[in-house]
From TrEMBL:
This is 2OG-Fe dioxygenase family protein. InterPro entries: 2OG-Fe_dioxygenase (IPR018724). Gene3D superfamilies: q2cbj1_9rhob like domain. Pfam families: 2OG-Fe_Oxy_2 (PF10014).
Amino acid sequence: MEQVKKGVQTALDVSHVSAQLKAKGFCSIESDFFKQADFFREDDWKEFAQSFNNQPVDKYMKDNGTYRLRRFATIEYSTSDRSMNFFLDRPYYQPTDINYLNGGVVRHFDPMEAETTDNRFLRGLLQWAFNVVEQLEGSSNWEVSLHPIRILARTNEQGEPAPEGVHRDGVTYIFMMVVARDNVLGGESTIYDNERNPLKSVTLQPLDLIFADDNKVMHGVSAILPDGVDGYRDVFVAAFTKKT
Ligand SMILES: [Fe+2]
């Protein structure tokens, strides 16, 4: 079950990550550990990162911002057969009590492209995450929403990675992995307890990830600003909802 190279005890070990999630409500993992994972190959990672270059503008931003580009997909997964079934035509919905800014509206985003949903790095990362949630929840069925998102930092418009502020996503577990930071300042991620006291702040670099128990903790990300010239921050978010 452990998705790491033989004999290498790392922060990626499923037992370590699940213990952290249980004890603290979150687990932060640096890029070096993902580079040692058995599912990591440089060319797969590069291909996954490059897919963020081809994403349309999010048309549902109620702050009228044009700084967010994204695609979307849903997965159904059962720990019994371990197969990931992708759905590319489902809309995304959040209630307003979870997302006061953009909730309450059924959002139809452009789907993730087939070559991205087939990407070996993506599949490996998701299987690792499913192993973590299985360790925590036992045999179970999951619905997972996938959000590859680019936030632009332009000289004429600040980029907001989390325009809704400190929030939770109304799911069971969630991870956020930064995929790229190009000419940006800011974008500091903070995990909060349910009374909104900050627990940990970190400026995630490419391949760094935070895994969180969405019931135990909340999260937020500070604005990004261009570092001299226009820039962007790419993040991949996967939100896991336990169905049964
Ligand atoms: Fe979130």
